[in-house]
Amino acid sequence: MELAVTRRAVVTGGAGFIGSHLCEILVRAGWSVVSIDDCSTGSPANLERARSLGVETLDVDITAPELAAAMAEALPQVVFHLAAMSSVTLCGLDPERCLAVNVEGTARVWEAAARCGAEKMVNVSSLAVHGASDDAYGRSKRSAETSLARQATSAEMRLTTLRPANVYGPRQHGDGESAVVATWLGAMARGEPLFLDGDGHQTRDFLYVGDAVAAMALAADRGDGHTLELGMGVETSLVSLLGTMTGTTGWRGRPSRRPARPGDLRRSVVDARPARDRLGWQARTGLEEGIRLTWEWVTGG
Q1: Quick check: is 208 catalytic?
Q2: Does the pTM exceed 0.70?
């Protein structure tokens, strides 16, 4: 009988909200997985289930010299790069650190992966590259994409870049600018005030974390040389989102209004057809189901 060959993966940012879900889906699919994360924003608690399934964890900063040795020890065939300084606010307050992590750190990950013979990098970027407000975070992610694309044209290691829409789900905490689902569900669970910025008719494309990481796993073998955006392809206003949450949670409060945030996009929706065509992927978790699953996690149900 021919034995199945275990594939090896490194997930940078594996202790984060999305990264921890990716580690789990990979190890359940038979991969040998190493998470590289300094836990500056991620949490070891996110990886409790993944570790029980056999995921190895290394406490390494992607900007540190130790990265090269950690990558060589893991010897991955595929590197999933999620580690980033993702707070728009913190990037604005410390643009040098933002540049070091998101641009220079990404370059270090590529170099370390290439040196140890990795076959593929799946780079998880952001829709912020479109630069509607031209903030430090968006500029850094755009620079990282440009640099990787340039290096990939003359390298043996293949590259696929993914730009997820507003990802939400279990393990997300309401401490990021795009984490409105986590922020609002947390407020509802704790009985705290809930704030709505602007008139609430600005739209977003909300993507459940299970669907997002399914696309990342598929990208290990597909989408070479392409940059693909991930989303439901459905515009949902914040007012509509709040209505869905209310129906799920039974919350009966009223949101407090605040002025719209400077540079806030009025509309945002993803054309997911290229991802469907290149990856054979489609988001399958509707907003109502995704909110229910997230609420169960928030309330411990």
Answers
A1: no
A2: yes
